Structure formats: C-alpha cells, structure tokens
Amino acid sequence: MAAETGTPTTLTLKSNDDELFSVAESAAILSVTIRNMVEDGCAGGVIPLDNVDGKTLASVITYMNGISAIPADEEKKKSYRDKFLSDKDFETLADMVLAANYLNMSCLMDAVSAKIAQVMEKKSVGWVRRKFGIENDYTPEEEAAVKEEHKWTFEGVETDDDN
Amino acid sequence: MPDSEINFSYSNVVIPEEITEEILCYLPVNSLLRFKCVSKRWRSFISSEYFTKRHLSKSHSDKKDNGNKFIFSFKGKQNSLTTRFLSVGSSFSLDEDEPIVTTSLDIQIRPRSEIQVVESCNGLVLVENIYTGHLICWNPSTRKTKHIEKPFGFGFGCVEEEGGYGFGYNELTDEYKVVRVRYKEYYETRTHAHMYSSKAGSWKEIEDLDKHLAGRPGKFVNGRPHWLIFGRSPDWEIVALDLVEEKYETVDWPVCFPKVNMFPPYLENTGGYLTLMDCNSYANAMSVWVMTQYGAPESWTKIWTFPNSFNLPIEHVCRSPTPPLCLKRNGDVVVALGSVIVAYNGENLLRWSQVDKFDRFIGSISYVESLVSPFGSDEILVSPASWMMTI
C-alpha cells in the first residue's frame, strides 16, 4: 500500500447565490459535470454552479459525503438514499431533482424521481396541477369524460393539504 | 417528451418536461390514469406509445425485486358461472410489515362465464373462456380488454386437455402473438399449431410441432413461449417457439435434474426465469430448478427444496405442487399456497398472509403493471353493468 499523500484534494463549489462550499474531490466527482471539469483541469479555483442555490447545494454535498463514505454495498447505499430523502417536502425534492440533473448525478436523479413519484402517488389532480404549475385546458365536460373513463383511480386519493 | 417546447413551472422553479417524464416513469398505473385529467398534454403523453414503452421498461427493471403484482383467481359462488379476480401487490417484501393490499378486479366479458388465466406478458394477461374457448387479452391495470376469436375449426377448448397456448411479444416487429397448439386427433402425437398476430388481427397456421405436449399453457420467458414435451420418460424436453422465425427449438434440460418417475415435472415462469419443478418427492418436499441465465445449460440451478406446506396456523392450505410466483434478487421466494401467500428464504418462513378467505381457489399468476393496450388501440366497447363480472 502506498502511503497517504498528505491531505486529500478539496474542491470549492460556488452556488448561484454566491455561497462557497468545500468538498472532497473524491465525493464531488459523483457529479459527472464536476468530474468533467476536474478532468479538463478547470477545477483549480472556485467551481461556479450557476443552476444550484446554496440551500440545495448544501443538501447535495451532504448526500455526496454520505454516499461516498459507504463502501460498495448497493443495499446500504439504497437505505442511505431512502433515509436521506425521507423527510424532504415536494419543493425541496423538486429543487434537488433539478440540481441532480444539472450536476449529472444519475443515482441521485433516480432516487429523487422515485421519491417524488411516491409523494405524488395518491395526490389529487388539482395538487399535481398546482405543484407542476399546469393550467387545466379541459372544458368541464371534457374533464368529466376523462374522469369517468378512469373512475376507479379516484378512489383513495388523499385530500389536499398542500404538503 | 420529444416534441416539447413547453416547460412546467411552479413558484420560481421550472421543471422541464424531460424531468417530469423521469418522475412519471416511477408512478403506478393507477396514478397515471388519474393524472390524464391534469391537462390535455399530460393525457396524450401518458397515452402515448413512447411513454407506455418507457414505463414498461422501468417496471421490468424493478420487477425482479418488487415490481411484480399477483392475480389470484377464485370460482364464483356455487352454480355461478363467474370467476373472481383479486390483484395483490405490488410488493410482498419483508421490510414492510404493512398488510398487503388487495384489489378486486372486474373483467368485462360476454357471455358471463368461467375463465382461466393462461399467461401474462408485459402487463397483459391472456385468459380463456373455458366453455367457449374464446380468448380475452386483458390489462388488469388499465382494465381494458380485447376479445380474440378462436381459430377456425376449434371446438370446445380446454387448455389442460387438448394442447397448450403460448403467449408472447416479439420485440422486433412490436407484435403480440398467441399460439395455439392442438392435437389433430386424440391419439395422435402430431399437433397442429396456429398463431395469432396482434398486428394482423387474425390467425394463421404455422409449422406443426411433431411432439407430445404435456398439455399445459406455454410459459413466456426471454421472448418465447416454452412448452414441456413428453418424451420417453425420463427424457423430457423443453421446446421453445421462436416468434420471429416461427421455428421450434429445444432448450437444454438441467443435467442433474432428478430422474422422472411418477409425476411429471412442471415447467414454470418464475418472474422471468424458466423454472422446472420436480414433484416426485412431493410427499415431503418439492425442488425448484431455475435457469438463471437463459440459454446457458450450465446455469440451471436448484434454488430450493421447499416443503409443500408450512406450519401455518390456518386450515385448508393448498398442498398441491405450487410454482413460485417470483424470485427476489436476494434469493427469497414468494409462493402462493392456495390463497395464502408466503415468503420463504429456503430455511425459514419469513412472512405469510391470507389473501382471501374465499376457498374456491383456482390459481395465481404474476404480472407487471403496464399501460400497454391490449393488442393495439382496437378495444371493444363494452357497455357497463350487464357485462361486468363481479360477484
């Protein structure tokens, strides 16, 4: 075994609201976007991440550190991801899925997408429209007809509390 | 969403459609059908063939673990010509101590009749009306059905007695195929075979299978239906039909499989794996062999010898040979003993639950949830109430 070569390389990441974060390169390169920058030699100074705000970046870094500390054990990684996402609300998850997409972190992207789906699963149509900012372009008659076609899927839907 | 220019937005954040699409892939079919009401765009996207295929491939990649759902069928009340279906799932995992959820399924069929499940493929379930021989392709998740006329010259049909069906999907041509193999005459070993194509919407005759079929429905694994063939005992064979070439091929038999004495083995599909069950020692136990890597004869592995009945604190546990419903990645087996569903790790009974107290149990089969339309968009329109098969 080779001796440790001093301190591990640390990268500095900057969020779009100008917060600075230090993170071990070995954890940060879970992001393919960051890894490409490191490989291209663009990671010397501060790495600006223009599409991620400080709050979300802090959370993503917590995830990077947490998941890279787990040895190659898919079961343990999965249970870490489940726990990491368990208490997040829809808005936080939405920020995170965008960050994961921008940073090109497929494992986080898949986990957050699945988690959002789990949150949505029993929600009403109105809840989905609000959270995804979608305008209802059906006439009342058209909407009633579509609903009638799949009537049974409206059983057991949660009442909206917007959480 | 390929032709998209619109972005969804909420508060200050914009969720692009490509990410929405990722999220929708993880939703169960029930939620997706409800969300067709969100907007016209969501409706056409969720209904699209593109999304149907993406969603299906996501279900398939999860299915080895807990993407499977199960259908249990029960006979109707005495003298009633109906079959009742219950869907169970979508997971039967040990991590969850929650009670398992069952949903009663309606299948729209005319006339009312007793029907039996043949096989499932991509979320479609092929069922047969055992009195008329008619076939129905059914998606239990979307509740759509399509009736298939029986091939010319077919009289009263019964899967168990006369031959065997096969049901499968040909990815190359994007076609679903139903194969009907039947003896020409009762004492003949030659069979004649017909194949139905979802694209053509009709039957055609295909090459005869010059073998003696064990007479059970074919099992769809790795893109082909497979049948068990009676050779001269113990020389049993598995024959697969290549749906592209329309040729029969023999699949290698496990070298170490016990010699067949009295009871024929069962050929099964355990959540996508070709499976053989040895029932000869079935007074005490039953061994289950799985081809863990399709096409590799050396990959036949005896995964379990499991007792036919566990010491369950309930009466009337089914004691006949029962194939596993699914094999989990960690090696656990889920098996239905009548209407009791059991998870077993080879040594210990991990969990069990009684799906239903209804005792006229017919059978169980596993399927994946999908949006796949039964054989294209050409569904029959059924009027409500009178055609519903509920009890």
TrEMBL record, chain A:
GO BP: any one term: SCF-dependent proteasomal ubiquitin-dependent protein catabolic process
The keyword NAD belongs to this UniProt entry's keyword annotation: no
Entry keyword Glycoprotein: no
Domain SKP1 component dimerisation: 108-152
Pathway: Protein modification; protein ubiquitination
Any GO CC annotation of this UniProt entry: cytoplasm
Known partners and oligomeric status: Part of a SCF (SKP1-cullin-F-box) protein ligase complex.
Family: Belongs to the SKP1 family.
Protein name: SKP1-like protein
Organism for this UniProt entry: Erythranthe guttata
TrEMBL record, chain B:
Name listed for the protein in its UniProt record: F-box domain-containing protein
Transmembrane segments: none
SMART domains, per database record: FBOX (SM00256)
Stretches assigned to the F-box domain: 9-54
Family annotation (InterPro entries): F-box-assoc_dom_typ1, F-box-assoc_interact_dom, F-box-like_dom_sf, F-box_dom, SCF_F-box_component
One Pfam family matching this protein: F-box
